């Protein structure tokens, strides 16, 4: 269904959606796009996306409709809202396949899926990890929720934009996997950062702690790829004054979604909840635009500097 002749509508052409749509164009898909921000539309036009004057206009006649929007409320507004940014469900042809790629709550993803199906369409939640770099390079990881049949139909399109594409289960499972993964990430980055600050206090060099932990049971992505101190991993954001990378605002957002899921399920996750508080304060206190590994500086500040 989603072969090269499939008509694609792309709604939300921001940091992620812009390069994802550009990759689909480069792979030969006819892509019509819409964004409520004119500058995003202009950039997409330069990349070969046919520009529509409304979301519903982009969706007319499309086989596949991709949404890449900031949050759940934007997804609902795009699906059913009035005005240029809304009306997708009514405008799409019967049986169109919706790929909802934004990061939203599991509950919102399930509601969005019900709305899609109730309107006579098909849908997958397909949030991503890999950031803007992955979106540009076409190397995103897609975590997908929905039916096997729809997953198979979406495969060729997702493979253009991503490298690893995992069907996680039924509707909402993609968002569930994303929220669980990012809860691990938030907690592990705080743990690694606390260990480096403790090491500093104990007189350990960063390199010595890295050499041990990276080859021992402390090993994790927050240590060996996104190391929060400069030096041991030259490509980590710590080496460029914590320019993202993965911004503190996005970590705070994703942990907020994790806490929503924790509350809905009643899971007693002390560390997940603590991480959400820590990153919410980090984002509010100036860390929103810096890499989330900058949390190490917050820990140092609270500790009172390095002896
Ligand atoms: P962004 O704000 O750059 O892009 C979102 C775009 O959606 C904006 O250009 C906005 O104008 C547009 N928009 C909002 N409502 C619209 C509507 N009704 N119709 C058309 N356009 C509309 O955000 P982003 O960084 O591209 O992130 C998009 C999603 O991907 C978010 O849910 C985010 O959490 C997730 N995500 C982002 C990253 C990242 O590194 N940026 C990584 C993984 C996941």
From TrEMBL:
6-phosphogluconate dehydrogenase NADP-binding domain location: 7-169
Pfam families assigned to the protein according to its UniProt record, in alphabetical order: NAD_binding_11, NAD_binding_2
Pathway listed: Amino-acid degradation; L-valine degradation
GO function terms (MF aspect): 3-hydroxyisobutyrate dehydrogenase activity; NAD binding; NADP binding
Family in the record: Belongs to the HIBADH-related family.
EC number: 1.1.1.31
Alphabetical UniProt keywords: Branched-chain amino acid catabolism, NAD, Oxidoreductase
Highest taxon of source: Bacteria
PANTHER family, per database record: 3-HYDROXYISOBUTYRATE DEHYDROGENASE, MITOCHONDRIAL, 3-HYDROXYISOBUTYRATE DEHYDROGENASE-RELATED
UniProt keyword Secreted present: no
Record has 4Fe-4S as a keyword: no
Name of the protein this chain belongs to: 3-hydroxyisobutyrate dehydrogenase
GO annotation, biological process: L-valine catabolic process
Catalytic residues in the record: 178
Residues annotated as signal peptide: none
Enzymatic reactions: 3-hydroxy-2-methylpropanoate + NAD(+) = 2-methyl-3-oxopropanoate + NADH + H(+)
InterPro entries hit by this protein: 3-OH-isobutyrate_DH-rel_CS (IPR002204), 6-PGluconate_DH-like_C_sf (IPR008927), 6PGD_dom2 (IPR013328), 6PGDH_NADP-bd (IPR006115), HIBADH (IPR011548), HIBADH-like_NADP-bd (IPR029154), HIBADH-related (IPR015815), NAD(P)-bd_dom_sf (IPR036291)
Location of the 3-hydroxyisobutyrate dehydrogenase-like NAD-binding domain: 172-298
SUPFAM superfamilies registered for this protein in UniProt: 6-phosphogluconate dehydrogenase C-terminal domain-like (SSF48179), NAD(P)-binding Rossmann-fold domains (SSF51735)
């Amino acid at each position: 269904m989603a072969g090269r002749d499939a008509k694609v509508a792309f709604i939300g052409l921001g940091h992620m959606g812009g390069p994802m749509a550009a990759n689909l164009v480069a792979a030969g898909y006819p892509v019509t796009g819409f964004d409520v921000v004119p500058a995003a539309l202009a950039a997409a036009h330069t990349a070969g996306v046919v520009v529509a004057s409304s979301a519903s206009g982009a969706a007319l006649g499309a086989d596949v409709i991709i949404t890449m929007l900031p949050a759940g409320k934007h997804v609902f507004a795009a699906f059913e809202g009035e005005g240029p940014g809304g009306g997708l469900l009514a405008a799409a042809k019967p049986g169109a396949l919706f790929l909802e790629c934004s990061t939203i709550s599991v509950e919102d993803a399930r509601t969005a899926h019900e709305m899609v199906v109730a309107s006579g369409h098909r849908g997958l939640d397909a949030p991503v990890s890999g950031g803007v770099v992955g979106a540009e390079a076409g190397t995103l990881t897609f975590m997908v929720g929905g039916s096997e049949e729809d997953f198979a139909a979406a495969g060729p399109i997702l493979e253009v934009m991503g490298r690893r594409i995992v069907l996680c289960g039924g509707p909402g499972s993609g968002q569930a996997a994303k929220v669980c993964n990012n809860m691990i990430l938030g907690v592990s980055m705080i743990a690694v950062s606390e260990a480096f600050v403790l090491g500093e206090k104990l007189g350990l060099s960063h390199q010595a702690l890295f050499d041990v932990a990276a080859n021992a049971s402390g090993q994790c992505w927050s240590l060996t790829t996104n190391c929060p101190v400069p030096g041991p991993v030259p490509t980590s954001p710590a080496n460029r004054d914590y320019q993202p990378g993965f911004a503190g605002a996005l970590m705070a957002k994703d942990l907020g979604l994790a806490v929503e899921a924790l509350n809905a399920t009643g899971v007693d996750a002390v560390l997940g909840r603590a991480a959400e508080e820590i990153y919410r304060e980090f984002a509010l206190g100036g860390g929103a635009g810096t890499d989330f590994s900058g949390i190490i500086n917050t820990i140092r500040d609270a500790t009172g500097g390095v002896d």
